[in-house]
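Students often ask what a holo structure prediction actually looks like on paper. The answer is less mysterious than it sounds. You provide the chain, you provide the ligand, and the output is a string of discrete structure tokens encoding the 3D arrangement of the protein together with 5-phospho-D-arabinohydroxamic acid.
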Amino acid sequence: MAMPFELPHQADGVTLDWQTGTMIGAAVQQSRKPLKDLAGIFRDEARRKQADPDTTVYQVQWWEPAATGSEGGLFWGVTTIFPGRVGEEYFMTHGHFHANRTRAEYYGTVQGEGMLVLMNANRQTWSERMVPGSLHYIDGRNAHRTVNTGDTPLIFWACWPTDAGYDYTTIREKGFGARVLSVNGKPALVPSHAENL
Ligand code: PAN
Ligand code: ZN
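The corresponding structure tokens follow.
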């Protein structure tokens, strides 16, 4: 029996599994971020060093259908942050500003629970709750970092411009204005100046 429709064949195409947050296709690239590549990012650097340096904190799959840096294109990706903590701080991404501060981004949560931490140029920092189905518009001026506050992987789609670029240096040097810590067993956004109170 003929199928009512067939998906068009695309040699270079990418398929999304919306349930699991997986990208499939020869053009899909991937990278992994182990604890050893996140020096200086967590508050408790001593604890980070004590843990197995090969522990995967997060991984990213993405597709670049247009050249990096070219104007007008879009990239699509998916990030999986595994559950875990360094001391009281939940596993999270490095975080970045876009090198081009006029370039925005969408995140959409597939699975898990977490927080999207946003910071403006004045270091004012706030968060949005990530739950399955939540859609997050990230203004191009704001730094963004995602945090897995649950016991299962936090998985989210992302779509961003080909010429957004990454400014990781500002975050590496100054961090965000607040961190997501477990306080009395619950995730809380704690201003950095209040961390040691
Ligand atoms: C995302 C992020 C991804 C990993 O695709 O790059 O979640 O986070 P870090 O880049 O901070 O390590 C995105 O925001 N792209 O622009
Ligand atoms: Zn981004």
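Residues 60, 77, 79, 93-96, 105, 144, 158, 160, 164 surround 5-phospho-D-arabinohydroxamic acid (ligand 1) (CB under 6 Å).
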